[in-house]
Specification:
Layout: E1 8-13, E2 18-27, E3 34-37, E4 44-46, H1 57-61, E5 79-80, E6 92-95, E7 100-110, E8 114-121, E9 125-131
Parallel strand pairs: 5-6
Antiparallel strand pairs: 1-2, 2-3, 3-4, 6-7, 7-8, 8-9
Length: 134
Amino acid sequence: MPGTKTNTINQYCSVCKEHFDMEVVKQGSSKGVIWLKCPGCQGFLPHMPDEDDEFGDQHARQGADKEIALEDLDVETAKEYSEDQIYDVGDVIHHRSWNDFGKVLSKERLPGNRRTISVQFLRQGKVQLLEGVA
């Protein structure tokens, strides 16, 4: 459709192993998460701003009102994050791609029987991740 402008952000896809201009498909309500769609694998991922990104720490730290410290987390019992797993509120998880630990704060069911978890990470702040993807 001529004249339609699509909002895109250049982002690295860890599945495709390359950078793309990805379409912004959803911006989280007050959570500050921007969801992008990879044109290569058609997967969805949260926007991860670089340090010199025009959005800076605004999106990465927005919603990080409940900061946590490493001492608050039992990293010995941390579960490795995988979008196909199911987590409980209070679980400590390790996100391998970000090398960051976090605590599951809440769970949400989305349309289409999709589920997400809100996790407060040490460095990434509060992030919404997929769970139970078959």
